[in-house]
Amino acid sequence: MPTGRKGRRQQPRQDWTPLNMERLASLPRTIERRGVNYQVAHLSGSTKSYTCPGCHHEIAPGTPHIVAWPSDDGFAPFGLETGPAERRHWHTRCWD
Questions:
Q1: By the 8 A CB rule, do 37 and 73 touch?
Q2: What are the Basic residues biased-composition ranges (predicted)?
Q3: Domain spans in the chain, listed from the N-terminal domain onward
Q4: CB 81 within 8 A of CB 87
Q5: Cys bridge to 95: 2, 70, 74, 90, which one at CB 3.0-4.6 A?
Q6: Residue 30 and residue 79: Cα distance in Å, rounded?
Q7: 46 to 42, 61, 76: CA distances (angstroms)
């Protein structure tokens, strides 16, 4: 009688989680607007409120919105050197 592992069903791994596409959408990407390159990330929400520079109205906590900052044209990845100081939170409609 064979005693090999062939034919045995393998139990699914308990530590596996499906890929969250929403997290991939939040990765910054470079977009050019009015001759300036910006790093832009889509956020599904935040824990605090921000003022949109486009309409000067509040972006309420938990509201999906866009964060954008000028990039250094490849000098620093993701605009890390200017990002924290120049980062702005926009309503999606105001950014578009």
A1: yes
A2: 1-11
A3: 25-95
A4: no
A5: 90
A6: 10
A7: 11, 5, 25
Beta-bridge mates of residue 89: 67
Residue with the bigger pLDDT between 83 and 35: it is 35
CB 44 within 8 A of CB 22: yes
Give me the DSSP letters along the chain: ---SSTTPPPPPPTT-----HHHHHTS-EEEEETTEEEEEEEES--SS-EE-TTT--EE-TT--EEEEEE--TTSSGGGTTTHHHH-EEE-HHHH-
- Between residues 91 and 6, which one has the greater pLDDT? 91
CB 27 within 8 A of CB 41: yes
Residues 6+ apart with CB under 8 A from 11: none
